[in-house]
Amino acid sequence: MSDTPINLEALRQRIDELDNDILRLISERAECARNVAEIKTQDDPQAVFYRPEREAQVLRRIMELNHGPLDSEEMARLFREIMSACLALEQPIKVAYLGPEGTFTQQAALKHFGESAISLPMAAIDEVFREVEAGAVNYGVVPVENSTEGVINHTLDSFMDSSLRICGEVVLRIHHHLLVSETTRRDKVSRIYSHPQSFAQCRKWLDAHYPQAERVPVSSNAEAARLVKTEWHSAAIAGDMAAKLYGLTRIAEKIEDRPDNSTRFLIIGNQDVPMSGEDKTSIVVAMRNQPGALHDLLEPFHRHQIDLTRLETRPSRSGVWNYVFFIDFKGHHEEPRVSAMLEEVRLRAAEVKVLGSYPQGVL
């Protein structure tokens, strides 16, 4: 027993020494980042500082080298924040996202770019596209599919008329909570606000626990949280960011019907992303209205052994072709086998548009 205080003090001293080393090394890394910015600017005043493929490679390497006791994803998140802060020394990244503040899309933006990025809320998905196209921001973040409710068609449709490229992806585990304010009478909740998709994702739980409560759909979960602040008989379904932003209390946690509920978000920008080693490609294909069109489209993927991860059909907006396919597959369009496959698809399709090749989501 007498050795315990001495051992504890020795451990604290060692932690202090390690903190000093960590501080010194982070500062050295930040100085290197600043030197990189100076060199890039000398060569090209319009240089792009954020390199999605480089960041993905660094994070994958950190996860491979990690041996604990911290989880590999937790270690990667720590390095993400270091990289975000260092990048801000070079040039702070401006990111538009589907708002308002407190949405899962903002959470996805911060997960991908780190807390040092400047995130700007937009009222609609097409506004996110517009801000990036105009050069007002560097990148945009938009939801594209949910594991429970399927694709977000508005995002897919926006790509049809846009010249923007997909630069990355983020997959976010979605946890919904039932939130109330300090003035809510918890035994008198008769109205629940949320986004329609959240209601759909929590339908069974609501049927079991609040079958009589009025369900009021609103534009976002963050808006639902804001409304609850002003009403004594209401609750909201929203996530952690909205709860923190509006000072709400969770009276029920993780009420989604499926524990694996997640949403995939796309990073949109103006740059082509080089190969990172583990990439995806997204394309839009317009096919002629004829028998066997889908088979003709998919046959080259099978023959070249290209792994499809998503296939969605949307009605054509031009009226010329009856249907348009959105396809995600593993691989980069600059890889020889992928390039050969795309050439074959172009010969069979009315139109093929490569939306972008980008690193597969690391976190």
Automatic annotation (TrEMBL):
<feature type="domain" description="Prephenate dehydratase">
    <location>
        <begin position="94"/>
        <end position="270"/>
    </location>
</feature>
<dbReference type="Pfam" id="PF01842">
    <property type="entry name" value="ACT"/>
</dbReference>
<protein>
    <recommendedName>
        <fullName>Bifunctional chorismate mutase/prephenate dehydratase</fullName>
        <ecNumber>4.2.1.51</ecNumber>
        <ecNumber>5.4.99.5</ecNumber>
    </recommendedName>
</protein>
<dbReference type="InterPro" id="IPR045865">
    <property type="entry name" value="ACT-like_dom_sf"/>
</dbReference>
<dbReference type="GO" id="GO:0005737">
    <property type="term" value="C:cytoplasm"/>
</dbReference>
<dbReference type="InterPro" id="IPR018528">
    <property type="entry name" value="Preph_deHydtase_CS"/>
</dbReference>
<dbReference type="InterPro" id="IPR036263">
    <property type="entry name" value="Chorismate_II_sf"/>
</dbReference>
<dbReference type="InterPro" id="IPR002701">
    <property type="entry name" value="CM_II_prokaryot"/>
</dbReference>
<keyword id="KW-0028">Amino-acid biosynthesis</keyword>
<keyword id="KW-0057">Aromatic amino acid biosynthesis</keyword>
<dbReference type="Pfam" id="PF00800">
    <property type="entry name" value="PDT"/>
</dbReference>
<dbReference type="InterPro" id="IPR001086">
    <property type="entry name" value="Preph_deHydtase"/>
</dbReference>
<feature type="domain" description="Chorismate mutase">
    <location>
        <begin position="2"/>
        <end position="94"/>
    </location>
</feature>
<comment type="pathway">
    <text>Amino-acid biosynthesis; L-phenylalanine biosynthesis; phenylpyruvate from prephenate: step 1/1.</text>
</comment>
<keyword id="KW-0584">Phenylalanine biosynthesis</keyword>
<dbReference type="InterPro" id="IPR002912">
    <property type="entry name" value="ACT_dom"/>
</dbReference>
<comment type="pathway">
    <text>Metabolic intermediate biosynthesis; prephenate biosynthesis; prephenate from chorismate: step 1/1.</text>
</comment>
<keyword id="KW-0511">Multifunctional enzyme</keyword>
<dbReference type="GO" id="GO:0004664">
    <property type="term" value="F:prephenate dehydratase activity"/>
</dbReference>
<dbReference type="GO" id="GO:0004106">
    <property type="term" value="F:chorismate mutase activity"/>
</dbReference>
<dbReference type="InterPro" id="IPR010957">
    <property type="entry name" value="G/b/e-P-prot_chorismate_mutase"/>
</dbReference>
<feature type="domain" description="ACT">
    <location>
        <begin position="282"/>
        <end position="359"/>
    </location>
</feature>
<dbReference type="GO" id="GO:0046417">
    <property type="term" value="P:chorismate metabolic process"/>
</dbReference>
<keyword id="KW-0413">Isomerase</keyword>
<comment type="function">
    <text>Catalyzes the Claisen rearrangement of chorismate to prephenate and the decarboxylation/dehydration of prephenate to phenylpyruvate.</text>
</comment>
<keyword id="KW-0456">Lyase</keyword>
<keyword id="KW-0963">Cytoplasm</keyword>
<dbReference type="InterPro" id="IPR008242">
    <property type="entry name" value="Chor_mutase/pphenate_deHydtase"/>
</dbReference>
<dbReference type="InterPro" id="IPR036979">
    <property type="entry name" value="CM_dom_sf"/>
</dbReference>
<dbReference type="Pfam" id="PF01817">
    <property type="entry name" value="CM_2"/>
</dbReference>
<dbReference type="GO" id="GO:0009094">
    <property type="term" value="P:L-phenylalanine biosynthetic process"/>
</dbReference>
<feature type="site" description="Essential for prephenate dehydratase activity">
    <location>
        <position position="263"/>
    </location>
</feature>
